[in-house]
Amino acid sequence: MKLYDLVQVLIVGGAILVSALYALGRVAPNLRGRCAMWLQRSSQPLWIKNIGKKIATDSGGCGSGCDTCGSCAPKQSGVPSQALEVMDKAPFSR
Amino acid sequence: MNMSASPQNTARRVALVGNPNCGKTALFNLLTGSHQKVANYAGVTVERKEGRCLLPSQRALQVLDLPGAYSLAATSLDEAITRDVCLGKVAGEAKPDLIICVVDATNLRLHLRFVLELRQLGLPMILALNMGDAAARRGIRIDVPQLQRALDMPVVETIAVRRNGADTLLAALDGLLPPEPQALPADADLHARVRQILADCVAIPRRTAVIDDALDRWALHPVWGLVILATVMFFMFQAVFSWAAPVMDLIKSLVESLGQAVFTLLPEGLLRSLLIEGVIAGAGSVLVFLPQILFLFLFILVLEESGYLPRAAFLLDRLMVGAGLTGRSFIPLLSGFACAIPGIMATRTIQDERDRLVTILVTPLMTCSARLPVYALLIGAFIPAQPVLGLFNLQGLVLFALYVAGVASALLVAWVMKYLRRERVEHALLLELPSYRLPNPRDIAIGLWERASIFLRRVGTIILSLTVLLWFLSSFPAPPPGALQPAIDYSLAGRIGHALQYVFAPLGFNWQICIALVPGLAAREVAVSALATVYALSATSEDAAAQLVPLITAQWSVATALSLLAWYVFAPQCLSTLAVIRRETNSWKTMAAATVYLFALAYAASFITYQIASRLL
Fold first, then answer.
1. Binding-face residues of B in 438-467 toward A, CB within 8 A
2. Counting beta carbons within 10 angstroms of the beta carbon of residue B21, is it exposed (0 to 12), middle (13 to 18) or buried (19 or more)?
């Protein structure tokens, strides 16, 4: 096999692998989250932890994590947990 | 006013609170350097945003931007978020250290009531008297020191749309925390208090602006108002096709040149095929539609900033109520023209749970910007660019008709849902009409930049990655020795396409379209890039990257193209939208119902379109 053939197989293989991982992470954000947690375990080397941190922090604008919309929705702010149910109508006892 | 020392001065968290559309998010952007969406209507912000601001003394400040609320007695989900943050009811989050009450200086009669109510929180407060420039133009004079005394809190003037418009607020925030204002008695009549304060501190020559009244006589007229609305929408879609054409041609020629350069540089092999037939043909074919998307958003942003949209909601209220929706559904549905996701999230402003659910279920029918590349590709290929009545462009007319089809189908589905649930209760529309405003060129430019970044990010990430994967599936396994058909016929994607054709043949879809529908589920535009890749791999010509339009024109019938257009009007080809429906309704069942009804509608509409068109054309 010529050197060029080897190089092109490596480049094409790498591009397909990266694309597959990226698309899977976008379409299945929960799976990506679990992978990120596994990569960030204390027993892992630092460079693997960094990879885990990178894929964990990359989430969609609506907070669903998939981001296939390209963050069409407003950016989520610091703490994502919000009460989505109207709890009580009268906040003060009068 | 004296400010008292407080141990909390070291780590301050301040919350921007106020009525909707008083400029909280504009002020937040000015303080933190963020680019959060602002527009001239109530209900743009539906969740809390957090940012950091550096004070003149170099101390950092945490700033919370909260959804607009009329009262702490929340009646909708967005108001509940504001109430919970102010009352410290959010788990793991303390109350803010300081409340910045933002009020619209031109509308103090409405906004001061909430300020008085907020005094009962027992938190230090500063009043930001926003839009002072607009108030001055209308001849409104405010005695600020007197207002400070009446409200028992520091009052600073801000103009959130000016570069240095928050300097006085920053100076006030840099000082010590003001003392908590004295709470009013529990049985105090807040409206009477507001009337008294206005009488003591504010001189208002007229309640509304002269220009607003003059414009509203036409814009809200039951007949002329609708004519104006239809003209504005019609003009918008004509312009999207006509004005974007030169820039689109330029991008197209650049993509072609790039394809030819790669073809000359690289020897035949996998890498060249991936770059030309995968990356350049696929992602390049979607990139061409950037100018059309930007022109569409230019119109949407100008309309949002001008204050015209709530008037349109008012005009369409009767129609919406007849269809089982409410005038409040208008803004979420309109947001759906950009993307269904913010549209679905904007339904948090709808108080009635059933109205909210119906709006969530029909929002995916609004024509989002991701459909535009698909529509533009098919219209460009099959509809001639001929003038109609010497005035209109036929392509623009068809695009307008597709948008109308989306709106009409949303209204029809809402009407069916109303009929099925047998509800006859009508909810009155209570909507604040903001003053008309000339759009700020800087805000428009930032909005367009944001949309361009979002689109380019999509092209560079999800669209590119799925196109590369599709190229792989369309290239392997290699054809057997002596194969007569194009290689793609023997590939995995080719086999999947041929298998799916049994299901989609009654709609007139060939196997190439069937392949494109699968990755198109992740993002609608991927269907365009997928078609480009599939046809590039099927073609023998060396410059296949540039030939999608002539290829589909030659190989598809007009009936097939119309059928595919009908499919895209209805089909929920967007996983993110389905995910957000589940998240906002907290129900897998609702998401499944939305998916099933939308696919069923898409199949039925395509089937009818194809069967009729193939007989007539």
1. 454-455, 457-458, 461-462, 464-466
2. buried
